[in-house]
Amino acid sequence: MADIIRLLPDHVANQIAAGEVVQRPASVVKELIENAIDAKASIIKLIVKDGGKSLIQVVDDGMGMSATDARLSFERHATSKITDAQDLFNLNTKGFRGEALASIAAIAHVDMQTRTENQELGTQLRIEGSKVVMQEPTVAPKGTSVAVKNLFFNIPARRNFLKSNQVELRHITDEFHRVALAHPNIGFHFFNNGFELFNLPKTNLRQRIVHVFGSKMNERLVPVEEETQVAKISGFICKPEFAKKSRGSQFFFANDRFIKSPYLHHAVMAAFEGLIKPDTVPGYFLYLQVAANSIDINIHPTKTEVKFDDENTLYAILRSAVKHALGQFNVAPALDFER
Ligand code: ADP
Ligand code: MG
């Protein structure tokens, strides 16, 4: 029998990878903003139209790219962030897979403009379904702008699966909240259909939380602070009386990256035990810093699930940190009454 196995062409491989990386417009938002952060941007602008279905654009003032790098950035497994497998165990960037731009460009129309500090002219580039249709020098500010149009134009099934503009915008906003809370020291703008939804100047964490969730949040926040050999924990929990039936303000960040962790959530719930009604959930914004080599981020393409080396210890530290914070908050008024 004749040989029948063949290597898939790049654009097909990219489209397959895109299935994992790009679920919906919000995934594109996440990837583009993370790239801007990795490029050391100090101000990031997010512009979307029609829930991201017709436009998702991220403009940063970061390091930009040379003309060659701009072209290469769309190749699969092309990255400036790691060089060998060892680096996977010591990640200091959001990205490392070199897959996002290749995936996005496989299933959308992408316009990039970029310029590094010491280039006289910048580069503009247009890619449609993995094909470079234009690349030429252009006048551009320092930094990078990536505009993604007509997402899933070549995958009708995916395009039809998208929810209403309003629901997709909701997902984008969730993603925006996560990244804005992870990086209060970066300024963010967020425009939807020409209307500015958020203007977040760079600031400290408390102000960022209040900016995002409104001034009523300020009185609810109780600081959490704990430092051990395994982890440093900081951030805020919300006072027990503001626990809610619906979830919405529960945020964990590990090494500046939003993560989902039912296990760590349980640790927080354990600390709140007896203080809140059983069917309610407290709000929290908790930041874990652990050694880069004690966390595995490479579990899933979207990187929101991670694996900690010493999860049980982390659980215990977190629970005690939250308990301690709650204790201080509860004890203070009681002492006042006794005097
Ligand atoms: P990864 O982020 O995993 O490296 P991406 O496909 O997201 O993979 O990006 C590929 C490369 O393109 C990055 O490693 C980086 O060098 C470059 N790049 C992407 N976005 C930007 C940006 N906004 N500013 C500067 N460089 C960028
Ligand atoms: Mg990336």
TrEMBL record:
Domain DNA mismatch repair protein S5: 209-327
UniProt superkingdom: Bacteria
DNA repair among keywords: yes
Sorted UniProt keywords: DNA damage, DNA repair
GO biological process, alphabetically ordered: mismatch repair
CC terms in the record's Gene Ontology section: mismatch repair complex
Homology family: Belongs to the DNA mismatch repair MutL/HexB family.
Protein name, UniProt field: DNA mismatch repair protein MutL
Source organism of the structure: Flagellimonas lutaonensis
Full-length numbering of the shown residues: 1 to 339 of 613
